[in-house]
Every structure is written in structure tokens, then in C-alpha cells.
Prior knowledge:
Layout: H1 2-20, H2 24-35, H3 42-59, H4 65-88, H5 91-110, H6 119-136, H7 140-146, H8 152-176, H9 182-201, H10 203-209, H11 214-234
Amino acid sequence: MVVLWAGLVVAAGAVIQGTVGFGLALVAAPLLALLDPQYVPVPLIVVAGVHALFQLVREWHDADWRGVGWALAGRVPGAVLGATVVALLPYRAFASFVAVAVLLCVAASLVRLHLRPTRPALLVAGAVSGVSGTAAAIGGPPVAILYQDEHGATVRATLGAYFGVGTALSLGVLAAGGQVDASHLLQGAVLVPFAAAGLLLSNPLRRILDRGWTRPAVLGLAAAGAVTLLVQAQFT
């Protein structure tokens, strides 16, 4: 029964990510942690990575590959730092710091300070995403905010490419630290069909989002992800 509920949670998150470009982890992470803490972060990272590759295949021709490369360059040291956080540092302080940083970026965007996917911005966003994605399986908001003014297909495809490679990096770093075992991978694999179903259900919704709703959706989900991290920090 727990697996079924976990699958439904993942499917709901997959619908959101398939529509906006990110959001699976920020929807699923807190609920999966309540169902069974073993689902976070490794099994969730597994299913999020597979979903991202499905997402990329669907709209690969719209990806900003230059941006993906620079964001991944920042993700590598961020993932190493994230694994260190998992092993050594208090989760509450780390999560609160990342959440506040994301909320500040959202606030800056709301006052018309538009953040753009420039090379330095992508490196920084990739690093922050690597930390939060590895430690808490929530790595979408920092990079997504930079693409808030792009077409919806570009956001989805670019984040799909970034998450696909980035989650593999995070898993590799966690595995090197002895924090991944076969049971984690199996838990993630069982949830993949639910993620695929959610992606299929997102097809009609993404066409609606592409009619001018990409920016508010990205900013709203980024803020929701930051608040989720803050709440998690208070109960961890």
C-alpha cells in the first residue's frame, strides 16, 4: 500500500514537472518522507533523473545546450558539497540557507530584476542546485529561475537535459560516499512507471502553459520549493 501511495505522489509531481519543467521533487519529497523516509533522497533522485530523460526526449530540439553545459559545470562541485552536507552538516541550517537564497531570487524577479541565463549566473545556479539536489533531491528552482522568460518548451527541454545528467552526478557522488545501495535503486525503479504516466498526462497541460503562463508558473513553483525546504528544515 505504501508503494501505491508513493507512486501516486510521484505521478502528481510528474504531471507538474512535465508541464512546467521542474517540480517533481518539490511535490514528492516532503510527502515521500512522510510515507517512508527511505524514499529521500536516493530513490527520488533515481526516479527524477529518469523522468527528466523522458522529458528531454519529448522536446529535445528546444534545449539550450550551451546553458546546460555551464549549469552542469557548476553542478559538479555543488554535488560534492551536497554529499558533504548530507554526511556532516545539520540539515536545518543548510536547507534554510538554500530556501532563503531561492526566495530572494524570486523576490528580485517580481520587482522586475530579470535574472538571465548568463554564464556566471548558470555556474552559480548550477552549484546551488547541485547542493540542494544532492542533499534534499530539490534542485530545480535555482536553474529554472534563470529561464523564467523563455518559451515553455525551452524551459522543459533544458531542465530535462540538466536534470538527466545532474541527477546521475548526484547519485555518483552519494554512491562514492557509501550512501547508495541496491534497495535504494530498486525503490526508485518501482516508481518509474508512475512518473511515465504523469508525463503523459502533462501533454495537454503544457500547451496551456505555453500561452504566456511560463514565468508565473516557474516563479510560483520556485517559491513553493523554497517554502517546502524551510518547512522540512523545521521538522528534521
